Amino acid sequence: MRKRVGVIAIFLLSYLFLKVVSNRYFILNLSPSMEKGIYLLKEIDELKKGDVVLLNIPLKIKETLYSRGYLPKNIKTLLKEVVAIEGDKIEVVNNKLYVNNEFKGEIAKADPKGRELTSFVEDKILKRDEIFLLGRGENSYDSRYFGVVEKGELLKKTILLKEF
């Protein structure tokens, strides 16, 4: 317990330091959906698969995230990996997600507490300025549930500087 309090204190102090010194850094994601650590925020020049991006929580899932306790209400952004871009094919078969016929993960019907999950993902070929995002954690709440995202909804591109 004492060690956990120390780790949390380090996160908070690092966060405050980086917010004061520079708005270019962001300590993000205490959930297992992406790596925990310090991220460098960059302007988005071009996007490719594998890039990790910061976006505002999509409105259609905001209430679910907060009411179910997936995120505290003071968290307003998500960090996710780009897994599909213009021209890529998104397909769902038996609650399994495929991008260009490659299996990318299950689409759960319920969360770990047994509460029903709604998925807004649909089969399609991504158009210009559309992207599909996934977290790296097993229970990540990502495009499998909120669907395709417009590039204009993205805030920054990120680079993991220090993993905790």
Summarize the structure.
It is built from 3 helices and 11 strands.
In spatial order, strands of the major sheet run 1-2-11-3-4-9-10
Percent in helix: 10-25%
Tally the helices: 3
Q: What are the segments in which pLDDT stays under 50 over at least 5 consecutive residues?
A: none
CATH superfamily: Umud Fragment, subunit A
Number of domains: 1
What overall form do the CA principal axes indicate?
globular
Task: Work out the radius of gyration.
Answer: 16 Å
What does this structure look like?
- By secondary structure, the chain is α+β, with helices and mostly antiparallel strands.
- It has one domain (2-163): Umud Fragment, subunit A (Ribbon).
- 20% of the residues lie in helices and 34% in strands.
- It has helices at residues 2-21, 59-67, 143-146; strands spanning 25-28, 37-42, 52-56, 77-84, 89-93, 96-99, 102-106, 124-125, 130-134, 149-150, 154-163.
- It has a 7-stranded antiparallel beta sheet with strand order 1-2-11-3-4-9-10. It has a 4-stranded antiparallel beta sheet with strand order 7-6-5-8, with no helix packed on it.
- β1 (25-28) and β2 form a beta hairpin.
- The longest helix is centred in the N-terminal third of the chain and has 20 residues, at 2-21.
- It starts with a helix and ends with a strand.
- The mean pLDDT is 86.
